[in-house]
Amino acid sequence: MLRWGRIRTLDCQGRSRRAFLHAGSLAALGLSLPDALRMRATAADSSPPRSMILLWLWGGPSHIDTFDMKPQAPQEFRGPYRPVATNVPGIEVCELFPRLARCADKYAIVRSLHHDTNDHGIGGTVGLTSSTAGGASLGGIVLPGQLKPTHGAIVSRLRGFRPDIPSFITLGGNLTQGRRPIRGEGGGSLGSLYDPFRMDYEVDVGVKIPDLDLIPGLNSATLNSRQDLLAAMEQLPQRLDQSPSVQRLDQFYQQAFSLLTSGKARKFFDLDQESPAVQNAYGHFRFGQCCLMARRLVESGVPFVQVNWSSTVEPVEDGGEGGWDMHDRNFSIMQDRHAWMLDQSVSALLNDLDQRGMLEQTIVMAVGEFGRTPRINPKAGRDHWEHCYSGLVAGGGLKCGQVVGASDALGERPAARPMHPGDLAMTLYGQLGIGTTQLTGVGLAPPGEVIEELL
Amino acid sequence: MGFSSEVINRGNSIQFLDLDRSVILTNNAAPDSVRDRVPLSPPCSLFSGRGEWRDCCCAPLIVGNTQVLRVVACVLFLLTCLLFTPLSAAEPPAVTRLTRDGRFKQRPVWSPDGKSLLFSQHTGDNKIMILQWTGENVPVQQLMSAVKLPQLDAIWSADGKWLAWTKVEQTPGQGNLDLWVSLADGSEPHLIAGNTAGLSHEEWASWSPDGKRLVFTSTFEKNQELYVVDVSGENRQRLTNDPAFDVHPHWSPDGKKIVFATSRWGDFELAVLDLATSTVTRLTTSRGLDDYPVWSPDGTQIAFTSNRDGNFEIYLIQADGSDPRNITQQPGSDNFPGWSPDGKVIFVSNRDNRFDLYQTTVPLSKPAF
């Protein structure tokens, strides 16, 4: 059922010359040149397969107030923040990101992303699957077409199951807009087998595993400490045998639960194994510690980890969990919370991966479903803006310390090199060893064109 | 990227400002290529025994040509420098940590009698609530625990009998924050500034010293401006009218002025509104964000937050904007300053890697008059 053999064949991260020859023969049948070049580079590389950490900035951060500032724009566009120089001459970021300014050589900024929807739900589907197909709007309207798999599901499908650890882990709950779950976070056309295994972290509580809620008598409320979690894990084998709920779980979840009972897995999830200095560097808030968890999971062999900034798009003041959807009070929230949280956690992740020699083999992408209006609205906020926004990519052999693409003078439209989220996805897939061949092999079309400037 | 000779000594590390003050790099954090280019001021050549006296840092004051005169002049110069060194380069005042839960907090405010402290805290389930602190070994209590909607930024009236605070009226929504007043225990709440016709945010209230009016910010008439309103909720009046943001007002102890932060000159700077003349006077001109101003109890100083040195610190200035002093001077983030009735400065800091309340151990202002 798991089709190990087939999956191994499809996984070009085997990095053998045989794999390259296989790809080369397919190139003659229509593979793109970038595919072939990437396969050749991969075949010659004996390093381990790459992994990816997606930092999903749910709600849509303003590009103007983060990585694409417009200090020359009129006041109603530029806002109150100034750009600061980084350690890469010519690249500037918002003054609220002093740590990211010191490590700009470790990432690339893509400033001309765009797509066609300003709905969180559909935008989220586009960002996570590179397509609007099957996406659901705020009003509940489902767009035509079969829902595509999300990035992690594709990686999971093509990397295949491992008996000891899930291939696709999402740190965070289901993404919602207006309390309605969005579509596109899971396996899509590949099937629910490739849905993410979900975990989370909460300050003062620690690691949370929502699927444990399925076991009677065991829920997140009982996991009040690391000791509780470990105790729960100790009891899992017995509970697994006894619980009818668990009996109904599919093989994926049974595998995941089995994973939780292993001593190795405990180490993955136990952030106390990290030194206080490392924990402090990431910041003692949910997103920061989730970034640390993501590093530990990747280090342990998980090929794709998604970290959701929040489950809701709304900020705390709007009854949400602190998302980036700042239609009002944009600047207070940026200044007091979101900016330094993002600055501390992402810079810590990049520096940590680099110091451990993992950055070359780990792709990091931080992006939301869209940007925010360049023109500030009457509520001191910015609204949805899908016409032009920014993303940050790092590691994984990508060419960093650069800006790719550009927006116009007001940040309203791409001025150069417009790029769709699918282009970015295709580029990162390539760095993971997934090209047109692998995608079509599982019934998926390439989501876009490779951004050559990033390679 | 060039670097000026502006060097900030910050305890165990040294930070360097580039020529346009656009980035700060510590000597440890700067990449090699940058560190190599940092033009550190040479040590005094007289005392180091190297170079000619003309190379000495105190050469301008050396009038003689003998070694003794040079040494005397050098010592005098250094003493003079020490005498006039602003507080920003001196050791910051000692602080004590008041909370230890580590959760994100904002706007700590002391009761006028100094016995109780209110602040807003983000809870584990991502809500904001108003908590009351009465001592280090006493559990904090949630104010108005019956109210399930997010509440934030409470502040006492001068007589300690009333509170003003902000409540989120509609969730999930897009910013419908309203201003409420209640008795100090949270009872008898009543709305004094809201917008039933649409979404706007009325927030960050400050009482007039006589307890009859409040100043606050609102986007009721588009853009974020300062307003005053009677405690009854009547006579709402717009105080500022500028395309920029006017935020975080605080009423002076003598009742004559309101200090606030504004982006009308680019980034956030501090300004004072004279209520008698309606004139706005700029107080700060720093590059960087100056925000969250609060008058000292005696009205002679203003505490505020600034990232002018690269990260957010608590500064003090005189009421006329002069003599800025960094009183925190540490690499973490310090924000949301306030004053105790006896003149100590309280603020939120993540200096111990979690967000807690800290307060200077000594008064930095005279008590209220």
The outline of chain B comes out as globular
CATH homologous superfamily name of the largest domain in chain B? TolB, C-terminal domain
Q: Under the CATH scheme, which class of the largest domain in chain B?
A: Mainly Beta
Count of individual helical segments of chain B: 3
| Count of domains of chain B | 2
Descriptive notes:
The complex is a heterodimer of chains A (455) and B (369). With 455 residues, chain A is of the alpha/beta class. Chain A has a domain at 52-203 and 284-428: Alkaline Phosphatase, subunit A, CATH 3.40.720. Chain A has helices spanning 4-10, 17-27, 33-44, 75-78, 98-101, 120-129, 151-159, 226-242, 244-247, 251-260, 263-269, 276-282, 286-299, 330-355, 421-431, 436-441, and strands at 51-56, 83-85, 92-94, 107-113, 168-171, 176-177, 180-181, 197-202, 206-208, 304-308, 362-367, 371-372, 384-385, 389-395, 402-404, 406-407, 414-416. Chain A has a nine-stranded mixed beta sheet, with helices on both faces. In chain A, strands 2-3 form a two-stranded antiparallel ribbon. In chain A, strands 6-7 form a two-stranded antiparallel ribbon. In chain A, a hairpin with a 3-residue loop joins strand 8 and strand 9 (206-208). Chain A is globular, with a radius of gyration of 21 Å. Chain B has three helices and 27 strands. Chain B folds into two domains: 3-89, no CATH class; 95-360, TolB, C-terminal domain (Neuraminidase). Residues 1-64 and 84-88 of chain B have low confidence and may be disordered. In chain B, the strands form seven sheets. A four-stranded antiparallel beta sheet of chain B has the order 4-27-26-25, with no helix packed on it. At the A-B interface, strand 2, helix 12 and helix 14 of A face loops of B.
